Amino acid sequence: MIVEHLKNRGLFDEFRRDCLADVDTKPAFQNLRQKVDNYVTSHLGTQDWNPSINKNQMRNGLRQSVVQSGMLESGVDRIITQVVDPKMNHTFRPHIETAIHDFLSGESREENAVGCNSAASEQTELQEAPSASGPKTP
C-alpha cells in the first residue's frame, strides 16, 4: 500500500527522471557505453554478412553474448554507485519519508473517522432500539 501511495504521488517517475538526467554525464556510463560499442563492433567484425542472414537471430546472439560477457553487470553497478547512491540520502530519502508520514497520518485519520462513525452509529442504535420489555401501556 505504501509503494502504491509513492507511485500515485509520482515519486518513482521523479526519481527516474532525476537519475536519467545525470546518467550520461557520469564516467561509469561513458565507459560502459564505450565498452559495449567496442564489443559490438568486434563481434560484428567476425560475422560474415550476406543478405540472407536472419537479422533477428544475429541480434539475439549478440545480445546473449553481451550479457554473458558480464560487462553490463559490473558497469551498471558502477553507474548506480555514481548516480543513485549520492542521491539516496539527500534527495530520495526525504521525499520517501514525507510520503510515508503522509500515508500513515492519512491512514490514522481514516481509522479515527471509521472509529467515530461506528461509535456514533452504535449510540444511535441504542437510542432507537425499543426496550427489551416491549412498549409500555398505561
From TrEMBL:
The alphabetical list of record keywords is: Cell cycle, Cell division, Chromosome
GO terms for cellular component: chromosome
Spell out the residue ranges making up region: Disordered.
107-138
Subcellular location, principal: nucleus
Pfam families, sorted:
COMPASS-Shg1 (PF05205)
| BOD1/SHG1 domain residues | 2-97
**Compartment(s) where it occurs, according to its Swiss-Prot or TrEMBL record:** Chromosome
Looking up InterPro entries in the UniProt record yields:
BOD1/SHG1_dom, BOD1L1
User: Is Cell membrane there in the keyword field?
Assistant: no
- Determine the domain of life of the protein's source: Eukaryota
The processes (GO biological process) annotated in the record are: cell division
Q: Which family does it belong to?
A: Belongs to the BOD1 family.
- Quote the protein name from its UniProt record: Biorientation of chromosomes in cell division protein 1
Natural source organism? Liparis tanakae (Tanaka's snailfish)
Q: What is the lineage of its organism?
A: Eukaryota, Metazoa, Chordata, Craniata, Vertebrata
